[in-house]
Design brief:
This protein has 8 helices and 10 strands. A 7-stranded parallel β-sheet has the order 1-10-9-6-2-3-5, sandwiched between helices. Strands 4-8-7 form a 3-stranded antiparallel β-sheet, with helices on one face. Helix 7 links the parallel strand 9 and strand 10. 46% of the residues are buried. It binds 2-amino-2-deoxy-6-O-phosphono-alpha-D-glucopyranose. 2-amino-2-deoxy-6-O-phosphono-alpha-D-glucopyranose (GLP) binds next to helix 5.
């Protein structure tokens, strides 16, 4: 069942996400955390950093990685995860993994899926959502059962994420992403969505049919999924959902 929590603002949503992770680390200091890039979870990472938790035994897996960038590119998710998550939280870099974008991508995707299984699976996966309803880089039309795989980025996602690159031409066209099957195997999911631009995707994900054309609707198949939204991101939801 999807649990919806509407918070007063983005900062409160970040604090609530941090509360969930703090409680999970307290219960299991060797937690396997699934981390997400993007602007939406930044408040969670900032709130967690302020709490100075002992995360020395926590390990983490990123959701996805671009293909085709040089290894030292500042917008590779390897670099973004180091900058926005590993350093502020004080995670051990040796325990944090992103898909390897420099070798054979198909082999890297298989290795990544195997590494998650070897780690015992992800305990708590943080997710953002794209305006088109993507999770990770699982674009509309993706299999709801796929493991980590090589994927093409949609034109909409390339336009949305081009802001991080000097031009649309510099924006990658392909990626390695955990599949929706991988994401659904995490024991707990916490999706955070902020702002009006996400409102329709959030409503479709929570109230609409489970469909590969709206990948985040797969959360409805998960037994322990929490969706954190601010009022703007909640604005297209059925009224009874927001009130409950
Ligand atoms: C990227 C990431 C997704 C993320 C999405 C939304 O495409 N691969 O994991 O959810 O961006 O980003 P933002 O939170 O910045 O809107």
């Amino acid at each position: 069942m999807t649990r919806l929590i509407v918070l007063a603002n983005a900062a409160a949503a970040g604090e609530t996400g941090a509360d969930l992770i703090e409680a999970a680390v307290a219960a299991d200091p060797a937690l396997v955390l699934g981390v997400a890039t993007g602007s939406s979870p930044l408040g969670i990472w900032a709130a967690l950093a302020r709490r100075r938790l002992d995360v020395s035994r926590v390990s983490a897996f990123a959701l996805d990685e671009y293909l085709g960038l040089p290894p030292d590119h500042p917008e590779s998710y390897r670099a973004v995860v180091a900058r926005d998550i590993i350093r502020p939280l004080g995670l051990d870099p040796a325990r944090v993994r992103t898909p390897d974008a420099q070798g054979d991508p198909e082999a890297a995707a298989r290795d990544y899926e195997a590494a998650i299984v070897d780690a015992g699976g992800v305990d708590l996966q943080v997710l953002g959502i794209g305006r088109n309803g993507h999770i990770g880089f699982n674009e509309p039309g993706s299999s709801l059962a796929a493991p980590t795989h090589v994927a093409e980025l949609s034109a909409e996602t390339r336009r949305d994420n081009a802001r991080y690159f000097s031009s649309l031409e510099d924006m990658p066209t392909r990626c390695i992403t955990q599949g929706i099957g991988t994401i659904l195997r995490a024991r707990r999911l916490v999706l955070i969505a902020l702002g009006e631009a996400k409102a329709q995707a959030v409503a479709a994900a929570i109230d609409g049919p489970v469909t590969s054309s709206l990948p985040a609707s797969a959360l409805q198949l998960h037994p322990d999924a929490t969706v954190l939204v601010d009022p703007a991101a909640a604005s297209c939801l059925a009224r009874h959902r927001v009130a409950s």
